[in-house]
Specification:
With 124 residues, the chain is mainly beta. It has a single domain, classed as Jelly Rolls (Sandwich). Helix content is 5%, strand content 51%. It has a seven-stranded antiparallel β-sheet with strand order 8-5-10-3-2-1-11, with no helix packed on it. The chain is globular. The relative contact order is 0.26.
C-alpha cells in the first residue's frame, strides 16, 4: 500500500512549502491519479481545475477558496472540486492530504489553457 514515504518523486511549487507526489500516475495506464500533498501553514496555491478532484485531509486544516465561497476541511474530511472551477488552495495549518483526480490531473492540465501553471513546479 502506498504511503507518503513510498512516493518516488515529490514536486515542489516555487520555493513554497507545497509538495505533491503521485502514487498512481499516468505512467500506470490508469485514467485517474492518486497522490499525496503536503502544505506548510499559510501556503496558498491558485489553480484552475481541469479535472474533478477529491481531497482527503489526513492531518491539519485546509481551505479551498472558490467562486461560491470558502470550504474548510479538517483531518478525516473530504472536499470535492469540479472541473472548470477557479480555486485557491490554502493551508490554515501544516496539512497533509490525499488527492484523487479524474481524469489524471497532469494529462488534463497539460492539454488545457492552464498548462502554464505547471511551470511553477520542480522536482524537490
Amino acid at each position: 500500500m502506498p504511503t507518503p514515504a513510498s512516493a518516488a518523486t515529490w514536486f515542489q511549487r516555487l520555493d513554497q512549502q507545497i509538495f505533491l507526489a503521485d502514487v498512481l500516475s499516468r505512467d500506470s495506464g490508469a485514467a485517474m491519479s492518486v497522490g499525496f500533498g503536503r502544505y506548510g501553514k499559510g501556503e496558498k496555491n491558485p489553480w484552475k481545475m481541469t479535472y474533478d478532484e477529491a481531497l482527503v485531509i489526513t492531518s491539519g486544516v485546509f481551505t479551498v477558496e472558490g467562486p461560491s465561497g470558502s470550504v474548510t476541511a479538517r483531518a478525516g474530511e473530504v472536499d470535492y472540486l469540479r472541473a472548470g472551477t477557479e480555486v485557491v488552495y490554502a493551508a490554515d495549518e501544516d496539512t497533509e492530504l490525499v488527492y484523487v483526480t479524474y481524469p489524471h490531473w497532469l494529462a488534463a492540465t497539460e492539454s488545457s489553457a492552464e498548462a502554464h501553471r505547471l511551470d511553477d513546479f520542480h522536482v524537490a
